[in-house]
Design goal:
single chain; alpha/beta; Rossmann fold; 2 domains; eight-stranded parallel beta sheet; six-stranded parallel beta sheet
């Protein structure tokens, strides 16, 4: 793996460092900007892996956040370059002036990188990490693509779209938010490590779960979800009484408190559960599960569809433009999920969902089939196809 830093105090020396380390691409000199969040990062890595499989050598632009560094460390076969985050403050904030200066500086430095690498195409996977390279690429005359995985774009992608030749969509309904740009529906790529085959019994054994009991996977997102965690804790007596096993991913800040609550619950009744701040092998977690309780970020929904898992979705109530509710509706309307507002996520509501989607039930069978039908297994290939088509490559 190559990981360099795009920006430093000595920009000229840094650009020379990059030039010395990065060799020109064989076919498609392409940069993929995908840092900042897992929802942008992992789909971008999946596209990079597909391009690499086709003989290209894409460079991946990430932020300095810990999740980005961990992902880069896990993919030594890919090339990464880091850049500071360029998050936009509120429009009337005193920080807007500093943001504008940082943004323009980032654009200039991206232009230098694109020239030195001979880049012909830039793909932004969303977020403000994508804005400087897309802006620079447009000024360089490169092909520019933007991917939007959510049902409604955030403010960063509304900006980024101004510099995109084409906007690629995770869901078709988002096209109306880009009336002045060509769009194509590609789906959202699933990270490659999730596509491997996992033995279900072995996965359950590694989580310490009974191979025959119903298993609920609880996902609060990379930062956890206090409302979801508290609802599950309140339902533990009923879940224990029904013999439900749990894989509960709490998020790092909630882990200690949630673990203590499970310890108390086990003192009152037998409870089969694996509680962790996060999971390094989500393919095992999804394979071990029968049902999922989760937020409704776009990447999570993509993964639920891939694994054909019925889900109860609890949109984050403070998400920008309420985009998690709109995301959830895609699977709900397909018949693959149910949605519940966070205040209504009571123990009775959770137990009712588990009871109605029990083993062998028609409801579970229908939801499983609907989830699988909603998956787009070749999303990374579709995005790579659009890049090659716009560059008139075979």
């Amino acid at each position: 793996m190559l990981t360099a830093h795009l920006f430093s105090r000595d920009d000229r020396a840094c650009r020379g460092y990059l030039t010395a380390l990065i060799e020109p691409n064989q076919r498609l000199p392409c940069l993929i900007a995908c840092g900042g969040t897992g929802g942008h990062l992992f789909p971008g890595i999946a596209v990079a892996q597909e391009l690499q499989r086709r003989g290209h050598q894409p460079l991946i632009l990430i932020s300095e956040k810990p999740i980005d560094r961990l992902a880069a460390d896990g993919h030594p076969e890919l090339e990464f370059v880091t850049a500071p985050s360029v998050a936009m403050p509120r429009l009337l904030s005193p920080a807007m002036a500093a943001f504008g200066l940082r943004l323009l500086r980032s654009v200039r430095q991206c232009r230098a990188l694109l020239r030195e690498r001979g880049t012909r195409a830039v793909l932004g996977m969303g977020g403000f990490t994508s804005l400087p390279p897309l802006w620079a690429a447009r000024r360089q005359g490169c092909v520019t693509l933007l991917h939007e995985s959510n049902a409604i774009p955030g403010k960063s992608n509304r900006w980024c779209a101004k510099f995109a030749d084409e906007v690629l969509l995770g869901v078709a309904g988002c096209a109306r938010h880009f009336p002045n740009r060509p769009t194509a529906v590609t789906g959202t790529p699933v990270r490659t490590e999730l596509t491997r085959q996992v033995d279900r019994a072995a996965a359950r054994s590694r989580f310490g779960l009974d191979p025959d009991q119903p298993v609920l996977l609880v996902i609060g997102g990379s930062q956890g979800a206090r409302g979801v965690n508290e609802a599950v804790i309140a339902a533990l007596p009923e879940l224990a009484a029904q013999g439900v096993g749990l894989i509960h991913l709490t998020g790092p800040t909630e882990h200690e408190a949630v673990t203590a609550a499970y310890r108390q619950a086990r003192g009152r009744a037998p409870l089969s559960a694996h509680v962790a701040p996060f999971c390094h092998d989500m393919a095992e977690a999804y394979t071990a599960a029968d049902l999922v309780l989760a937020r409704s970020g776009a990447s999570t929904l993509t993964e639920l569809a891939w694994f054909g898992l019925p889900s109860l979705l609890v949109p984050y109530p403070f998400a920008a433009d309420d985009h998690q509710t709109l995301n959830a509706r895609v699977l709900v309307e397909a018949g693959a999920a149910r949605m519940i507002p966070q205040p209504d996520l009571t123990p009775a509501a959770l137990v009712d969902f588990i009871t109605q989607t029990g083993p062998g039930s028609e409801t579970r069978a229908r939801m499983t089939a609907a989830a699988r039908a909603a998956a787009v297994p070749d999303a990374a290939a579709r995005i790579a196809d659009r890049l090659q088509a716009l560059l008139t490559l075979p």
